[in-house]
Amino acid sequence: MYDAWWSHLGNWGLADLQKIKQGRVSYYVVHSSVLAEKATFVRSEPLTADERAVHRPDLPFAVAQSARLSWPAKVSQTPAWAAEFRATTGRPDGAGLQTPEVYLCPFGPKGGSKAGVRVRADSGISFTAEELIRKAATIQAPNVGDAVPVHGVGIYRLGLQRGVPAFYLWGAESRML
């Protein structure tokens, strides 16, 4: 993940924390091999405490992945499907996402992105893996058509929406591959 210098602003693209808390930010991602081959080191500037609090670099890029299951097409199927997801992935229920709220962005029947939905952890502190995948499936279900454009299930870091961590829903492999 990296930021870019915007010469027309005379600043880094993500420098104004108040502005990014009001809108959407999609993070730039690049494979390390491309970075090593094409980038030139300029300097290193660690994130400030305020930047760390907003961007949450402690959160994973891939939260949940399974090639064995597909997104359910009916909201009524999501509780049983989430339990099956946990069982097939072998993830303990406590291993989820350490944040009280996120935006989950589903995809449409042809693969296009849909508006993010803000969800809160039941505990008010963090999501268990099963809770997060259940909430994601509930949001995704109305968008699943006859032909799903992805194989498997996955939740991946997108950026920020209104200063809250945002994740996109997709298949077993991220869109970054």
Would you write up a description of this structure?
There is one protein chain. The chain is of the alpha+beta class and 177 residues long. The protein has five helices and eight strands; from the N terminus they run E-E-H-E-H-H-E-H-E-E-H-E-E. The mean pLDDT is 88. The chain has two domains: 5-55, no CATH class; 62-170, no CATH class. The strands form two sheets. Strands 3, 4, 5, 6, 7 and 8 form a six-stranded mixed β-sheet that branches. Strands 1-2 form a two-stranded antiparallel ribbon. Helix 4 (78-89) crosses helix 5 (129-140). Helices cover 24% and strands 21% of the residues.
Write the layout of secondary structure elements.
Blueprint: E1 5-6, E2 11-12, H1 17-20, E3 24-26, H2 32-38, H3 49-55, E4 62-66, H4 78-89, E5 101-105, E6 117-120, H5 129-140, E7 153-161, E8 164-170
Parallel strand pairs: 5-8
Antiparallel strand pairs: 1-2, 3-7, 4-7, 5-6, 7-8
Helix pairs in contact: 4-5
Provide the descriptors you would attach to this structure in a database record.
177 residues, 8 strands, alpha+beta, single chain, 2 domains, 6-stranded mixed β-sheet, two-stranded antiparallel ribbon
